[in-house]
């Protein structure tokens, strides 16, 4: 194979616009899989993806295709559609020269179409605008072409129309991939240098990597090293992914291949694998750092499972480089970890994978966004004067007296909605403390609204609420907009007078009373009745803002006594009261695990 016959591309689209279905068709047409496996969605390999019907992990497949009697190697990198996984999209574009931008010919341009388009533009990728689902009776290709023209200035003549489901137009699409997307611009003659775009763990072979070869070539048995350390390694495994492994002996610059250096071979995303002769100081490709938007604690269901869970989290984190893992401990839950995620869906998918792939059961605490505080120069903490710290766990928020300024993370949210819902969407955004930016028309029916919103108001359930108030017609995506000054306090939850660390939250002062009431009421509903009375309080700086009482089961210990013996009766009641006190003093209240995650949902 020559580099002029290699094309590296991915499919980007709004969620459900048909990426996985198209990937299946491409694999069929190139003979990689047998036709007729309609719901196979071969690239959605993980169980969680099948269950949720979303693509989580970017997977690559090398396809052979003959065009004008020339053999081409097309490397497809499948990418996930959800906002939470935007970093996987970013990562895969580092190896691509072009993208197929799929737009549902029925739904038209959506918020994520805007996001993936700007991502492709920023990375100078060739965009092949493609309308999908043209088989649907309500598809309106001309309308959507006009939208593409008004929003992105795309020439309607350059737009392809396909049906991934029926297999229409797939050949033309592959030819467009060959003719419109440039060959990889790489140095075929130089020393071997490859950029790692994915890693995963294999039971027998250790860490395996997906690598994009930027220069030179690589062979099995070749001596290599990682940019991150200078220890020598040898390439042990080399394969094309189709998407099943096909072992090869050699790969050249421009290819995307699987590489493994054996059990102690190392490797991580963003690192580079180099020829052992290559100087260490050449400029590295940098993958932009991941922004963690949501943090939560994860604890083993039982402390004896700590080592197993630790092992599983490590392995999963290797495959999901977007998570940040630090050890954590909690009085109620023991030793665990504080984990940073890209969003709530990412958090849910991570824990589901932990359960399904590693059979590890974990307790999750309430999620929170990271906050920033600027410290005062109070006597005790003089050395910190003016210093800014990021608080990822509400429990670690310094005392209010020592804080000069609070900041919370904001995002720019893009919403594309039918015009009849503009009123409802506007009230939602204002209610979530949003500030409007100028709106623009997508066409005569659809409008694009943009708001600067606090991330904390977005991560929990903004998307679900937006969908429900617009009958599912509005779409949403967000981009980071940095930290803004804010008026914040920490609200603690006391259960029978005991602080439950895991339930502390940082809230905006305008939301304080509302949140205090909501949280206590919800806890009252969620905590099962106990043998003792349970007092639930929301407290800020020692002041109680809301209180709920969960009545005890009444156990009538005197029922068996027939009136009469007053002293005996008193004694029994006293014993029972002491029993309650004992229970209370150890605060032995059973809180269901789901409470920690569910209680913060609206
Ligand atoms: P994510 O991975 O979650 O982002 O979704 P996706 O973009 O990969 O979408 P997927 O391929 O799962 O398709 C979403 C739905 O649209 C599925 O029910 C498909 O069967 C359907 N679909 C995909 N392509 C077509 C098409 O050309 N025509 C019709 N009628 N339906 C299609």
Structural commentary:
It is an enzyme of class 3 (hydrolase). This is Translation factor GUF1 homolog, mitochondrial. Keywords: GTP-binding, Hydrolase, Membrane, Mitochondrion, Mitochondrion inner membrane, Nucleotide-binding, Protein biosynthesis. It holds the Pfam family GTP_EFTU. One of its GO terms (molecular function) is GTPase activity. With 602 residues, the chain is an alpha+beta fold. 25% of the residues lie in helices and 33% in strands. It has 14 helices and 31 strands. The strands form 6 sheets. Strands 11-10-16-7-8-15-12-13 form an 8-stranded antiparallel β-sheet, covered by helices on one side. A hairpin with a 2-residue loop joins strand 2 (60-67) and strand 3. Helix 7 packs across helix 8 (344-358). The two termini are 56 Å apart. The structure holds guanosine-5'-triphosphate (GTP). Residues 13, 15-21, 53-55, 80-81, 132-133, 135-136, 163-165 line the site of guanosine-5'-triphosphate. The site of guanosine-5'-triphosphate has 20 residues, from helix 1.
List keywords for this structure.
single chain, 602 residues, alpha+beta, eight-stranded antiparallel beta sheet, six-stranded mixed beta sheet, 33% strand, binds guanosine-5'-triphosphate, EC 3.6.5.n1, membrane, nucleotide-binding
